[in-house]
Amino acid sequence: MSAPLVLDGKTLAKSVEQELASRVQRIKEKSGVTPILATIIVGSDPASVTYVRMKGNACRRIGMESLKVELPEETTTQQLIDKIQELNRDENVHGILLQHPVPAHIDEMACFLSIDVSKDVDGVNPNTFGRMALQMDSFKCATPYGIITLLKHYNIQIAGKEAVVIGRSPILGKPVAMLLLNENATVTICHSKTKDLPNVVRRADIVVAAVGRPKFVKADWIKEGCVLVDAGYNPGNIGDIDLENCISKCSAYTPVPGGVGPMTINRLIYQTVESAEKKLGLA
């Protein structure tokens, strides 16, 4: 078998940023408005601080503004909802991101529900999820959207293929399964209660690993020629797939880092630009 195709999210994200920079410039010229993404971070989790900084840098690269809202660890659910609703009302803000996870005492889903769907550029509000699943006009969960964008860019056939998603989180596993289904794949969602997981994975033409366990998916679980999408990121730049041993069997794969991660941030700023265009009548 020939060398597998590398689904390079880093390069694709850079390419898309050039297009986005042009669109942001057009927004400024037509309306005098600069799109703003508001990012809320509660507490000082080191990984979250890093992600927020990366998102701010991505905004600046395309000429957008990033509004960072920092709240203390002891912030209550109601205080966080109040801050979200304040941003909902702010005419200058076009996208709202609540950096997750939030501290354990906060009702994260209640906070997601309070984000205005017209500004929900991370696709976390359950109402956004419902519209996305039913193929209505809506934003999409950023990481799943990034995965689909990557597959399409590299001309990976999805329609008619059997896809196995390992993981059922509300912001990754479930929405990526819905997006794959919307692209006419036959989708199986696996989780901790799935029986005989390796044999289920062996059926897959496309494997999406989103379980949060390093090198969880083994080489003898996958069939020759499958496409591997590693949506995991564990300490030491390690994904959820044992890529070192799987690469020789697959036809295409996302590297870790540099695969799914850059596309998550890219879709976040992409949808913020879309939000601004819609609001200003420039879409």
Folded structure, characterized:
- This protein has helices at 9-31, 46-61, 77-89, 108-114, 126-133, 142-153, 173-182, 197-201, 243-246, 260-279; strands spanning 5-6, 36-42, 65-71, 95-98, 162-166, 186-190, 206-209, 227-230, 252-253.
- With 283 residues, it is α/β, with parallel strands linked by helices.
- It has 2 domains: 31-116, Leucine Dehydrogenase, chain A, domain 1 (Rossmann fold, 3-Layer(aba) Sandwich), CATH 3.40.50.10860; 142-260, NAD(P)-binding Rossmann-like Domain (Rossmann fold), CATH 3.40.50.
Q: Quickly count the helices.
A: 10
- CATH top level class name of the largest domain: Alpha Beta
Please state the overall shape, judged from the principal axes of the Cα atoms: globular
How would you sum up the major sheet?
6 strands, parallel
Strand order across the biggest sheet? 1-9-8-7-5-6
Assess the beta-strand content as a share of residues: 5-15%
Helix proportion:
40-55%
Using only CA atoms, what is the Rg?
19 Å
Please, what is the CATH homologous superfamily of the largest domain?
NAD(P)-binding Rossmann-like Domain
Distance between the termini: 44 Å
Number of domains: 2
Number of strands: 9
The CATH architecture assignment of the largest domain turns out to be: 3-Layer(aba) Sandwich
CATH topology of the largest domain: Rossmann fold
Low-confidence segments, given as residue ranges, are none
| H/E element order | EHEHEHEHHHEHEHEEHEH
The overall pLDDT average reads 97
Query: Structural class, judged by helices and strands?
Result: alpha/beta
